[in-house]
Amino acid sequence: MGWPVTLPAKGRSFPIALASFIVLQAVAALFFVADVTADLWTTALGAHSVLEALVTSVLLIGIVLSVAQLRWTLREMEMQGRALEVASGDFVRFIERQFDSWSLTDAERDVGFLALKGCDIREIAELRGRAAGTIRAQLASIYSKANVAGHPQFVSYFVEELLSRAAERSQDQTEDQPKAAAS
Predict the structure, then answer these.
(1) Within-domain flag for 131
(2) Total domain count for the chain?
(3) Which of 139, 147, 131, 141 is nearest to 113 (CA)?
(4) Domain shared by 182 and 112, yes or no
(5) Do 44 and 54 form a contact (C-beta atoms < 8 A)?
(6) Distance (Å, rounded) from C-alpha 58 to C-alpha 64?
(7) Residue-by-residue DSSP string for 17-61
(8) Per-residue model confidence (pLDDT) at position 85
(9) What is the pTM of this model?
(10) I need a labelling partner for 47 at 20 to 30 A (CA). Which of 7, 56, 61, 133 fits?
(11) Rounded to whole angstroms, how far apart are CA atoms 130 and 80?
């Protein structure tokens, strides 16, 4: 079925833009290093040469800092991706445990997952190769076993759980921040 839903890669453009900027800085740095070196070999040390050397040094420091920022950004994105995978996996396990507690059949589980993904009855019927009436009956059975009135309450049951878990994680992070600052 392809559960859990995979999310599009948002925010991937920042590292690409930063890497492009670093390449542009490196090209400029090569030019300035060559220019400063040529100036120092051909002319006496003057204010112009000192200024060019200073600007070139600042540019090189900028490149080093940009590379460090890029590495930090990539590590941060990787950690966030892992956290999302873990959270998504935890949520899927929660859904599966809840489906177990409601004693849903395999067909009802598939229909339930598709309903949670936002598919309507027609889409579920097409995906499962069943009649819309069969899907309606399976959804009615799911809602009855879950003791909810319909699709909105069914979805909100899981959304509420997801939000409460997010609030708990946020609270845990807030409590951990003073500890990290004190270290």
Answers:
(1) yes
(2) 2
(3) 139
(4) yes
(5) no
(6) 10
(7) HHHHHHHHHHHHHHHHHHHHHHHHHHS---HHHHHHHHHHHHHHH
(8) 66
(9) 0.49
(10) 61
(11) 39
Q: What are 28's two structure tokens?
A: 């400029």
Query: CA 94, CA 144: separation in Å to the nearest integer?
Result: 19
**CB contact at 8 A, 69 and 18:** yes
Question: Per this entry, what is the length of the chain?
Answer: 183
How is residue 26 written in tokens?
Answer: 């490196």
Q: Is residue 91 part of a domain?
A: no
Residue 88 has pLDDT above 80, yes or no: no
Instruction: Give pLDDT, residue 64.
Output: 94
Residue 80's Cβ-side half-sphere holds a number of Cα atoms within 13 Å equal to: 11
Cα–Cα nearest to 121, from 144, 147, 145, 142: 142
* pLDDT per position as a tens digit, 159-175: 887 777 666 766 666 66
Domain limits for position 24: 10-84
User: Whole-angstrom Cα distance, residue 66 to residue 71?
Assistant: 9
Residue 150 DSSP symbol: S
Q: Nearest 5°: CA angle at 169, between 87 and 83?
A: 30
Token pair, residue 133, equals 């009436």
